[in-house]
Amino acid sequence: MSLHRFRSSRPVVLGAALVALTLAVTLAGPAVTPATATPATAATASASTTAGETQAAAAPARILSTPSGRCLDVIGNVATPGTGMNIYDCNNQPNQGWTFSTASELKTFGDTRCLDVASHVTTSPARAQIYTCNGGANQKWRLNANGTITGVESGLCLDVTGGATANSTPVGMLTCNGSVGQKFSTSLVPDTTPPSIPGDAHISTLTCNSVGFGWTVSTDNVGVTFYDVYHDGQLMASVAAPARRANLRVVAGATWGLYVNARDAAGNVSQASQTVSITPPNCQADTQPPTAPTGLTASVSGTTVTLTWKASTDNIGVRAYDIYRGSVKVGAVTGTASAAPATTFVDSGLSPATTYGYFVVARDGQANVSTHSASVSVKTGSGCAQAVCSVSQVGVDTDIPWGLVTLADGTILYSRRDAHDITHLNPATGAKTTLGTVPNVQSTDGEGGLLGLAIAPDFATTHWLYIMHTTATDNRIVRIKVENDSLVASSEQVLLTGILRNKFHNGGRLRFGPDGKLYASTGDAQNGDNAQNLASLNGKVLRMNADGTVPSDNPFGNYIWSYGHRNPQGLAFDSQGRLWEQEFGNSVMDETNLIVRGGNYGWPACEGTTGTCGTAGFRAPAQTYPTSEGSCSGIAIVRDVLYVACERGTRLYREVISGTGLTNVQVLFNGTYGRLRTVEPAPGGGLWLTTSNLGDKDSVPNNSDEKLLRVTLGG
């Protein structure tokens, strides 16, 4: 894949001096498997060979260490398994000839031996050797466009010890560091063509806890090796080709969107199939409601009320409690089939010196609702002494508000993800103006479309609005001038292209830093190995100059500022100028990270604190959240307090920044406004907050009913 950076209309090819090497991935699939996943079966698999499943053997090629020009060499020209590696004068002997297989192996000695990381070691340093080819994950390699060669299982780089150039210098495995000792050149040409989109996604059997999901064959120039099955961006199973069916565990009563991507041996991933919506029936009929909650009490602090009650009982299980203020539902606390919901709720942002009445009802998994609890009344204090003082609705929209920026006059611009246009809203009056449609935006039948916004630090004079969006072929960053409350389409400059897109995992947040640089979060495009590939723009935090050029102090000489991210959608700077980032996990936990220059945050080997997170060089998260209480998107920092907007968790976290950690974690608006997408600082030390409740995963424009809120903060 060629990556290009455009300034105005003149393309400049990135990395012209780099070796033409690209990503290859293990056949074993992503490292983290959801607890709900079950092994896929091949019940409906076709045994026929698809186009490109066989490939002629390639002629052996040399792999040259860049500083010395010497060849990667099996010591002593000995084919004995376990023999180590060094560099040596190129001499055309078999121990210096290499082929790159469609299974991502580096083979030598006439393809009888494979380059191997000894004993599956994944921590730095590790020993590189040859061994009998066995298909192990420690024999899978990525050839990267920056000249590095990475072990797929370990994430470590092939390394000439000390960057030395002398004959017989040992070669092993170290944490990737960008040094010259980790740079190689070769004529090996890996596969860069993704498979076609799998067709005819459909379900067969559907029960209360399982579904049979199938699709038709995807084609590839070399051959499809795996099909990855997702629901709503979460990996469920990887199915080895040629099988085209998976038996999946599901949750009764939960509506999911199923789809599948095809993957080849080189790690190229197709775009996603169409989505199939399922709602499994309940496993048993249940008409018995829970008992009413008892013991409801209320305590008040300023304009915040805290409610507590005793748990209800149910013949199957209580799934949620709905909280009513007067006769209006103002929130909910939810549990799962295995975890009961909490029995406390915080109601923030109330009017001072006002009496409020509350009651609570219990709900089970089949929507049977209890009678309501006894009511309780409480009067708020005369002033606000809490985190949130008030909440007011400043606007509504029929589309998904995504990016949001505040102008100097206190008005806001926000992007409408599926409608592909930008709105100017005056929060004081509710007046709205459409600035226009952004050119070349295309949705993904998922979470792509018109995403992040940022205004230039000198917007008052330059009028540059920065936009990240999906196109028919990629994700990209552009800038367009805003004049007289309109987008000037003719002024558009495409700053960066080639960020891979997919149905989900597109990232999309933009943020100018105090250094005047533009930072952008990118998703892994549903291919976790992109996140560790320093030749890929995906699964990264990127950093660029305002004109789209690469800053001279970026750590890898390209746009990458940090890597090892899955689907980051939150960026914010604190008072010290440090960058904080929020990203979606797969099925275990989400994470908040303090981003450092060149940092590796571990995906796909590490999700939050699960997986091989102890690997040398991986950065630990500052905070994690179970996905059932998270799926968090945007973040904002006000007075060195971090606010995290969560969708599935339907809440706003408040966390105090203390050193490099986050303390005094509070949950606000738990269920009050539903799914929260974007939070941004507002004038006067408050927050803007947007919802994402309807039409969030289908790319259909104007099928939503969303709120834009202003939150007044207290102490």
UniProtKB/TrEMBL annotation:
Does the record's keyword annotation contain Signal?
yes
Q: Where in this chain does the record put each Fibronectin type-III domain?
A: 289-383
What Pfam family is a match for this entry? GSDH
Q: Tell me yes or no: is Nucleotide-binding among this UniProt entry's keywords.
A: no
Which superkingdom heads the taxonomic lineage of this protein's source? Bacteria
Q: Where is the signal peptide?
A: 1-28
Extract the GO molecular function terms from the UniProt entry.
Answer: hydrolase activity, acting on glycosyl bonds
Annotated protein name in UniProt: Glucose dehydrogenase
What's the source species for this entry?
A: Subtercola boreus
Species lineage: Bacteria, Bacillati, Actinomycetota, Actinomycetes, Micrococcales
